[in-house]
Structures are given as structure tokens and as C-alpha cells.
Amino acid sequence: MLDLWQTLSSVGSGAAVGFVLGLIGGGGSILATPLLLYVVGIAQPHVAIGTSALAVSANAYLNFASHARRRNVCWACAIVFALVGTVGALLGSTLGKAIDGQALLFLFGLIMVAVGIAMLRPRRERGAAHQITTLRNCLRTGVAALLAGGASGFFGIGGGFLIVPALILATGMSMANAVGSSLLAVGTFGLATALNYAVSGMVNWPVAGLFIAGGLLGGLVGTRLSLRLAGQRNTLARIFAGIVFAVAAYILYRSGSALLRAP
């Protein structure tokens, strides 16, 4: 049974992640695990990662449905990437469960630094016009899908910051199509990771439900605000990168200290 603080903080943390995702279109899910650990109060790193993977999956599928309605999805590439990458997600999450929780958090802090650096790169918005992509082009991304899925499963993150550039480089599709297509993979990777952790009892289902509900509300607000601040997304992304760096430093300090104290 959750106490009042855990209930409110789960909804609030989910809303914060959803707000960031809606506002700048990515990166917010990297904060899910730190929020579950240090705000909601989940004590076990593996449970926080498994729970965040489920929340990331739900939010990704909801956003994917929105992009699909707008025809921003290249279905052949999206399906191939999701199927191949799911194998990587299962392998990565199985490996992640076997690693010491504090060591996993330390590696998670390092991946947060990489995400922050990626967020600093200015985005060049392209038109949403559809470019013809073939199954052959999608198959060329197979290796990238396996690696991205492995990273997603290992750290319990969405991995969109890896998937989007992989799709663009391999197929030449537009940014809009890459973002829309990547969400199917993000959702599927997260679901595979969450189910793998759930088998081992490493998902807090009540917290996940509240986190997802908060994410829906935050996403609506963030999306509406993004329409008003469309010309300032690069600035917002840089501010968010600064937050990611700060959280990463905290995680590296906490997990690094715990590793040094370990016998």
C-alpha cells in the first residue's frame, strides 16, 4: 500500500516526465528512474528501472498513436526496427538484472551525460513530407536496432535519442518520420524490458500506474506549451540538458560513494 507522499510524488514525477516529453519532444524519460529512486522513494535500483521501463513504454505508445494519426510513421522500418531491437532489449534487460544495482546506477549516470550532450545539439526541423523508404533500407538498420534495444533494456530507458539518428542515417527519412517511427520501437523496447523485470518481481505496479497517469496530464500541458514556444525549443533543450547534467552528477556521486563503501 502506498502512503500519501508516494501517491502524490508518483503522479507528480510522471507529470514532470510527460511535461518535458511534450515540451521538447524527447529526453524526458531519462529522468524517470532518478525520480522514482530519489523522490518517490523506491529503494531498489532494479525495481526503479523496471517500473520506469513500463511507464516509458506506455507514454511512447500513446505518443506513437498520435504520430500514426498524422501519418508520420514509416511502418516497414518501424516494425522491423521494433522487432529486431526487442531481441536486444530482452538481452540487455537480462544482463542489467544480473549487475549490482549501484554499479548499474553509476553506468546510468554516464548514459545521462551522453543524453545531455545530445540534447545540446540544435535540432533542425524538417518538413513532415513523406520520403519513400523500403524494407531494404529498414533492414540496413538491423545492427543499430539490436544495439539500441540492448541499451534500452540494460538501462530501462526509451532510447529514442539513439533510434532517431539511426533511422535518419540508414533510410534518409525526415525528422518527423524518424520521431514517429521511433516511438513504436521505444514502446516495444520498454514493454519487453518491463516484462523481463516483472518476471523477477522488479516492477512496482501501483507506482507505475500513477506515474503513467501523471505522464498523460503532464504531456497534454507540455504539448500545448510547446506550440506557443515553438521557436524556443533549442533553448529549452539546452536548459533541460543542464538539468540532466545536474541529476547525472548526483547519481554518479551517490552510486560512486556506495560502490566505494562496498566490501
Automatic annotation (TrEMBL):
Q: Which InterPro entries match?
A: TM_pro_TauE-like (IPR002781), TSUP/Inactive_protease-like (IPR051598)
Annotated Gene Ontology cellular components are: plasma membrane
Q: Which UniProt keywords apply?
A: Cell membrane, Membrane, Transmembrane, Transmembrane helix
Pfam families (alphabetical): TauE (PF01925)
Q: Where are the transmembrane segments?
A: 12-32, 73-91, 103-120, 141-169, 175-198, 205-223, 235-253
Q: How does it sit in the membrane?
A: Multi-pass membrane protein
Where does the protein end up? Answer: Cell membrane; Membrane
Q: Which family does it belong to?
A: Belongs to the 4-toluene sulfonate uptake permease (TSUP) (TC 2.A.102) family.
Protein name, per record: Probable membrane transporter protein
